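Record 1 of the preview.
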Amino acid sequence: MSSKYIEKHIKFTDEQYAIVSKKAEELGLRVGAYVKKMAIQGEIKRYDLSELRDITRSFRMIGTELNQIAKVANSTGEVTGKAVEEIKRQYEILEGVFENYLKPLKPNVIL
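->
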């Protein structure tokens, strides 16, 4: 595949350019990148990933709890089954939420 670029110029009215540049800015893209993605993919989707960050934070918290349980197990040689079951339960709940959240995302999404 050739790495040669073909440069094309597009003419916009002031109103058209205002619309295109506003949409590009909303997605955090330069106008050229926005136009190119729209021409190739036909759509650009933007998702609010704040919930995903919260889920990730919860996974980290569970990881921390697991490490604490592992420390106790390594130092005393035993861990209560109740502690292990609670961590498993929390993990399974979060895993389900995480999977459901990611299902609608497609590969052409700009994150």
